[in-house]
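Section 5.1 Outputs to date
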Amino acid sequence: MPTATAKVAARLAQGVTAKRAAVALLVAAYGAKKLYPVLRRQWAASDLGAGRGPGAGGEALGKWGPADDATASPPGVNRVFFVRLLRLLRMLFPGPLCRETGLLALHSAALASRTFLSVYVAQLDGRLARCIVRKNPRDFTWQLVQWLLIALPATFVNSAIRYLEGQLSLAFRGRLVDHAYRFYFEGQTYYRVSNMDGRLRNPDQSLTEDMVAFASSVAHLYSNLTKPVLDLIVTSYTLVSSARSKGAGTAWPSLIAGLVVCVTAKVLRSCSPKFGQLVAEEARRKGELRYMHSRVVANSEEIAFYGGHKVELSLLQKCYRELASQINVLLLERLWYVMLEQFLMKYVWSAAGLVMVAVPIITATGYSESDTEAVKQAAQEMEEKELVSMRTEAFTTARSLLNAAADATERVISSYKEVTELAGYTARVHAMFQVFQDVKRCNFRRPGELEDKAPRAGAAMKHGVRVEGPLQIKGRVVDVEQGIICENIPIITPTGDVVVSSLNIRVEEGMHLLITGPNGCGKSSLFRILGGLWPTYEGVLYKPPPHRMFYIPQRPYMSVGTLQDQVIYPDTAEDMARKGQTTADLERILDIVHLNYLVQREGGWDAVSDWKDVLSGGEKQRMGMARMFYHRPKYALLDECTSAVSIDVEGKIFQAAKDAGIALLSITHRPSLWKYHTHLLQFDGEGGWHFEKLDPAARLSLREEKQRLEQQLAGVPEMQQRFSELCQILGEGTAPEAGQV
């Protein structure tokens, strides 16, 4: 009898060796199948982020294709989703030898190792159960030692899987951030997305939380799909091989497994809510709530002065209620779906699993048809005690492997829910890049007009009329060295309102232009067109290149950095050294704008502070003028940039700018600055304009006369009221008789 047992054990050992070789080949084939399409795509397609030159971003954006599915298709698991995901994956994997590919290979190796360790642990469980049934403490101790020793690499592999998944998610996020930030700050996209286009209401939400969610979802979904699929293949192969080696039939268990899995998948898919749309809507409402908070932070002083905290509180509470309502809908949908999922996968599958394990053990003969007659005879002559221990080992091993296979199948089927959520994140991230591409190409969609509308043929541009449909950019911008010429240039706001239908002016060398007019007449809008922020919809604009023009707003932007950084912005210290400028030059500039005391007061050029709060309004405006003297542009666009500066100081600054050869284009309401300009562009607020040579003395005398008349007319209502009172007291009529004056 011991000889027969030894033969059976030897046969099983041979079967295990052959089984391991087959599994190794299967894993190699599986890895080749998974990696080959990725490598093939990387070799066939050029890398989105391979180019690092100035035009790299434009080439990358060009690969996004036409804007036909950015907003048309709702998030879902369909063809559009896979097209979007493929475009983003090409960005995440720029080449076959990139860091992300290496992390993916290590992650895959860790997942495969965990699968084989699970199979080995299941076999150890069966051997432990056999030793207990046979009452063999020596073998039990040895098997237990093996079980404890295998725990060390198993726990390390489990920890490595989580670590590599986190590293892969971080690498994906870094790749997305690198591309998104480069596109966002290219071609003034950051301005156009927020001011010229209405599709991305919260770009900061898309650039932060949406990209993090997408990267984490992709990394987790790969781990949640690859390991279950590999578990399912290996455990199924092991179960079938073990059953056949003992002469048990595998047809009925395989049929039961296939039927249960197919029915479960069909039921869950038909009952699955649209998680992609729900998650995308939740992310949008989170962005709305974040946007409302940012508005309160950005305008806290104005809100405090107005006492508008109740209004802002109600708006925030409304946004939160909308977000909470959407989260409740999502949780409610998940409640019933998870209940159905757990019923099918935990209880129905457990019952089916017991049948699948019991049938082979009950029908097993103890040997396979391919075994020799000696092995078959030995199996038939085994003692009942030995047969019971072997059945116990087989049952324990099969039950563990079947649980692993069921868990893997459950994760594969449950991953459909994660795929639908990934579809929502993919739609939002892809839409962000799609909008960046459209905006870079000056293809804007205005707020409230997101649907494609055909422009009205022959529609005339008139003041006060909103242009319907998409705005077509037909104008041209020509860079010249001298002068600014506007030929039939319309001034149109991003919402399509026509402020000025056609502007024709010529600013030649030596001219200094004063721009006046009522509010909303197009003064600042003209500066936005000259600065390239707004497109030229009609006509031809001749202007110097951007580096020859410098714009100074009424509220200059104070960057994060040192005091020196505030003067040279947007240059860096390296740019300053390259231009040959020194701190002595900066001190002379501060002398011109009367800010030389700042160096000593703030503690030197390298002092770092929150400059928007440290500097007063007048100091910030003079800092903006200091930047003009540092950069020395050919033309300076001054938009009420000295309204908080004293009259004597601003006069000295304007004169110094003229002496430096800087042509001034100024928007100002102070008569004291008229004398520093040679020409006048006056808007009437009704779409009209007037361009003429400026005579400061004559214009000042006319203004003084106007003020005198205003003072005289101011007393007329009081005189009329007193006249009526006297007439009432005297009992006379309030109107003079005919012929009397």
